[in-house]
UniProtKB/TrEMBL annotation, chain A:
Protein's name according to its UniProt entry: Sulfate adenylyltransferase subunit 1
Similarity remark: Belongs to the TRAFAC class translation factor GTPase superfamily. Classic translation factor GTPase family. CysN/NodQ subfamily.
Residues that, per the record, bind GTP: 10-17, 87-91, 142-145
Pathway involvement of the protein, from the record: Sulfur metabolism; hydrogen sulfide biosynthesis; sulfite from sulfate: step 1/3
Source species of the chain: Nonomuraea aridisoli
Gene name in the database record: cysN
UniProt keywords, alphabetically: ATP-binding, GTP-binding, Nucleotide-binding, Nucleotidyltransferase, Transferase
GO biological process: hydrogen sulfide biosynthetic process; sulfate assimilation
Automatic annotation (TrEMBL), chain B:
Species, as recorded: Nonomuraea aridisoli
Matches recorded under PANTHER family: SULFATE ADENYLYLTRANSFERASE SUBUNIT 2
Region feature Disordered, mapped onto this chain: 281-304
Similarity field: Belongs to the PAPS reductase family. CysD subfamily.
Taxonomic lineage: Bacteria, Bacillati, Actinomycetota, Actinomycetes, Streptosporangiales
Its EC number(s): 2.7.7.4
Organism domain of life: Bacteria
InterPro entries assigned: PAPS_reduct_dom, Rossmann-like_a/b/a_fold, SO4_adenylTrfase_ssu, Sulfate_adenylyltrnsfr_sub2
Keyword check for Lipid metabolism: no
Gene Ontology terms: biological process: sulfate assimilation
The protein's name: Sulfate adenylyltransferase subunit 2
Keywords from the UniProt entry: ATP-binding, Nucleotide-binding, Nucleotidyltransferase, Transferase
Length: 420, 304
């Protein structure tokens, strides 16, 4: 059994909470006491049916306003897979949440109300999915029961959305007509839509192939922590020196020749250690400890790669940045802290090339700043080299966060372009 | 050549993620500590810590907030396990907080020290100047937890502000804080109750005996089975009886209910959980039942 992480997005009232509630309910991830609490609340509010959407409304502020305001994570499992849902709200002002949820997602589900069709928000959600390079996208056309399960309506929406998606970097796109409320095509194929020949949503989630979405080609091992036991009593480990980290790309094996960055020195991997014993290979997302044949001065923030396949050592970065705060704006000359893999440095915004209208994809080159939930292309200068790849090639070595030095808040998320 | 399938199992993914989180904390903070209660989640967290730094010892102390109302079996386990690891164990005592007048003991039948723990915990964090505190909470436990970050920022009053959380992207965690503030770190955020049990089985991890079925004198209150113990105030209308029970969570004796069960092995527990239709908190924790928003309120104040 493996894990699929997916994000959900939709405009308010498209049925996102109902869909998640149904997936949890039908996969028995909802417990009696949770259901009772929801039934009680539904009754108190005078709703005649059990409102499954209440299951996913976490915080008091949200319950009071009746809307979802922050990313929430939900869990369910079927015999085939464990699922982690990043439930991200669809309001205009919450681009930030969707970007956050999509950053780790293998797949995104965008909901559309079959009556309303492709809205401005749907386009924004699709764009963000492609910007964050979520490998798989599902367009779930919901409330099919309200359009008489019409194939024609479904096809209209499919065509309109496909036309828009062709302008984006959407890897794998699947359309599924559903009724979250009635359960049509959610867990099993619906008899109400015999014209639909695809699989149910859950079947798709269980079977979509994700193992090869990871970068297994370019060896990237950001050094996270140096392990030196130095226990005088334990002589076996007295001289032990291992470099711990989580593999970000490629496949590492003992005996492989590797290069250390920034020094450029080469050596070979002598052992890949774990608490459970040495392993014969390591790949993402494994957390392991490497030892090398030669004594090289290696510390946190350094990178291990292959001599003939190295990341770019860059102090000048080109990136798309999503701005995530209203405490300040991003402007040329802004100084920020940047965290990329295990390396932290300072960054200066040298230029804002344009601000992107996430609905029309129009580039506003007159823009002089980015505000909360705005996305733009920037040039950064960094105080020390970062070992980067194009975000489109590797999400882990191509993504970074920006931190405000006055408040320590995370204020931006960046995706590196043109690293090579 | 046949392409190898690099699928990684769910427990391996969760373990790798938790190890990454622990190493991030050890690298970026000066004074972390790990909350160790002797409960199953903190036991799993401790195993992850052993793995993350092996062959070096765990580079931070353990801390337990002891209400004085814990089960003897759990306290014994806590002390033994810390000693085996050669770890430094700090015990922060709620009784001390009461004796020092920092908090006032509740009275009456339903008196519980649950809420008092928050003050003891925050005082201890301040006294030891901890800047990162590992907790074993999982997002699947409770609705308010579903939105909590892995690195959860606390201000100088130890408070959590759910509306003002730092966005968390990829595997990049923001460890920046000012003096007096701290970060609660939850390496098991993405684990479910079943994952925890599967992991305990896979790793062959020892857990306190009260998790397994045993015979105990109990009485019923609000549909929960509470134990017969000095610290639990029982009314005349609450008769004692013997039952075969086990605990799904270990908290205070005053507010942790047992469930009737004959599950005597980890395998049997897993089977039982896979079939149970009641969440572990709902079944066994009076502290979460007081109101729908109970957990959120306590978390804002700085609870675990
Ligand atoms: N008829 C019909 N109503 C639906 C369907 N899915 C959701 N709804 C209703 O649409 C409304 C909004 O749904 P909700 O899940 O709260 O939307 P959210 O804002 O996207 O989370 C609720 O009244 C739901 O009962 C569906 O497939 N068919």
């Amino acid at each position: 059994m493996d894990i699929l992480r997916f994000a959900t997005a939709g405009s308010v009232d498209d049925g996102k909470s109902t869909l998640i509630g149904r997936l949890l309910f039908d996969s028995k991830a909802i417990f009696e006491d949770q259901l009772e609490a929801v039934e009680r609340t539904s009754r108190d509010r005078g709703t005649e049916y059990t409102d499954l959407s209440l299951l996913t409304d976490g915080l008091r502020a949200e319950r009071e306003q009746g809307i979802t305001i922050d990313v929430a994570y939900r869990y369910f499992a079927t015999p085939r897979r464990k699922f982690i849902i990043a439930d991200t709200p669809g309001h205009i002002q919450y681009t930030r949440n969707m970007v956050t949820g999509a950053s780790t997602a293998d797949l995104a589900i965008i909901l559309i109300d079959a009556r309303k069709g492709v809205l401005e928000q749907s386009r924004r959600h699709a764009f963000l999915t492609s910007l964050l390079r979520v490998p798989h996208l599902v367009l779930a056309v919901n409330k099919m029961d309200l359009v008489d399960y019409s194939e024609e309506r479904f096809e209209e929406i499919r065509e309109e959305f496909s036309a828009f998606a062709s302008k984006l970097n959407v890897g794998d796109l699947t359309f599924i007509p559903i009724s979250a409320l009635n359960g049509d095509n959610v867990v099993s194929r619906s008899e109400n839509m015999p014209w639909y020949l695809g699989t149910s949503l859950l079947h798709h989630l269980e079977n979509v192939h994700i193992a090869s979405d990871r970068n297994l080609t370019d060896v990237r091992f950001p050094v996270q922590y140096v392990i030196r036991p130095q226990r005088a009593t334990d002589h076996a480990f007295h001289d032990y020196r291992g470099y711990a980290g989580q593999v970000a790309g490629g496949v590492l094996k003992p005996g492989d020749e590797v290069v250390h960055l920034p020094s450029g020195l080469t050596t070979r991997i002598s052992s890949i250690d774990t608490y459970d014993g040495p392993v014969e290979e390591a790949f993402a997302p494994m957390s392991v400890t490497l030892r090398f044949e030669d004594d090289i001065d290696i510390s946190r923030g350094d990178m291990i790669a292959r001599p003939n396949n190295q990341p770019q050592a860059a102090q000048e970065l080109e990136a798309m940045v999503c701005w995530m705060t209203d405490i300040r704006k991003l402007t040329p000359r802004s100084k920020l802290t940047i965290k990329h893999t295990t390396r932290t440095a300072r960054a200066l915004v040298r230029d804002l090339h344009y601000r992107l209208d996430v609905n029309t994809l129009h580039r506003d080159e007159e823009a002089t700043s980015l505000s909360l939930n705005e996305i733009g292309r920037v040039s950064l200068r960094v105080t020390q080299p970062l070992f980067v790849d194009d975000y489109s090639r590797n999400r882990l070595t191509g993504g970074f966060i920006l931190i405000d030095e006055a408040t320590n808040s995370t204020v931006g998320a960046g995706m590196i372009l043109d690293a090579s | 050549m046949l392409q190898r399938d690099y699928t990684t199992s769910q427990l391996d993914v969760l373990e790798a993620e938790a190890i990454h989180i622990m190493r991030e904390v050890a690298a970026e903070f000066e004074r972390p500590c790990l909350l160790f209660s002797g409960g199953k989640d903190s036991i799993v967290m401790l195993r992850i810590a052993e793995k993350a730094f092996w062959p070096a010892p765990i580079p931070f102390p353990l801390m337990h907030v002891d209400t004085g109302h814990n089960f003897d079996e759990v306290i014994e386990f806590r002390d033994r396990r810390s000693a085996e690891l050669g770890a430094r164990l700090i015990v922060a005592s709620v009784q001390d907080s009461i004796d020092q007048g920092r908090v006032v003991e509740e009275t009456g039948r339903r008196a519980s020290r649950n809420r008092l723990q928050t003050t003891t915990l925050l005082d201890a964090i301040e006294e030891h100047a901890f800047d990162a505190v590992f907790g074993g909470a999982r997002r699947d436990e409770e609705k308010a937890r579903a939105k909590e970050r892995v690195f959860s920022f606390r201000d100088e009053f130890g408070q959590w502000d759910p509306k003002n959380q730092r966005p968390e992207l990829w595997n990049l965690y923001n460890a920046r804080i000012r003096k007096g503030e701290h970060i609660r770190v939850f390496p098991l955020s993405n684990w479910t109750e079943l994952d925890v049990w599967d992991y305990i089985r896979r790793e062959g991890i020892e857990i306190p005996s009260i998790y397994f079925a045993h015979t105990r004198k109990v009485f019923e209150r609000d549909g929960m089975l509470l134990p017969d113990a000095d610290v639990v105030q029982r009314g005349d209308d609450e008769p004692l009886f013997e039952a075969v029970v086990r605990y799904r969570t270990v908290g205070d004796m005053t507010c942790t209910g047992a469930v009737q069960s004959t599950a005597a092995t980890v395998e049997e527990i897993i089977e039982e959980i896979a079939a149970t239709r009641i969440t572990e908190r709902g079944a066994t924790r009076a502290d979460d039942r007081s109101s729908e928003a109970a957990m959120e309120d306590r978390k804002r104040e700085g609870y675990f």
